[in-house]
Amino acid sequence: MARINVNPTRQELTRLKKRLKTSQRGHKLLKDKRDELMKQFLDLVRKNKALRQSVEEKLMQAHGSFVLAAASMSEESLAEALMCPRQTVSVDMEVKNIMSVNVPVFHFSMEGDSSDIYPYGFGFTSGELDNAVGFLGDVLQELLELAQLEKSAELMSDEIEKTRRRVNALEYVMIPNLQETIRYITMKLEENERGNTTRLMKVKDMMIAEQIQASQQEREASAGS
Which of 81, 64, 141 lies closest to 110, judged by CA? Predict the structure, then answer.
């Protein structure tokens, strides 16, 4: 623990006590914030893990079907089939505040014929291509939700780390330093008080001695006359 370099005065002692009280209150609030952030972060991580597993399974299915489609169709036919999609995707983003962390919220919407996502006729294409497009259509919304969860988890992780550093700085540096400085000033003031008391007692003893000596001189003068 390091002592803060201040003058050991009562005014400084009062100021440091107020500062210590504020630091302790801030430390408690930051600990509560860190704990709540950690709780919500773990909930996000669990949701993210389950959703990622689902997305990866569907993407693997889509990839497998697309590989089979590419093997059974010519490169030109495959490119022509996928050239003009019938649907377009729009994503709007807004921000939600979670424990002073601004996390993104994606709003997903499709434009076009929702009943037919296939941008080609079925006469000259492979059934595996139909499967691949179907899997990708099913997983698109989950992909956006996964992106939202992962970005939110990243932002909350950064905020947890910042809060943890602040809590540690208060708990292990600032509060102990303030307590040590308050203890030092208190001891210094008590020492000065004892010194003042000792000096006053010495002055009192000297005054009493002078009074006794003056009284003796008066008695001696009265006896001589």
Answer: 141
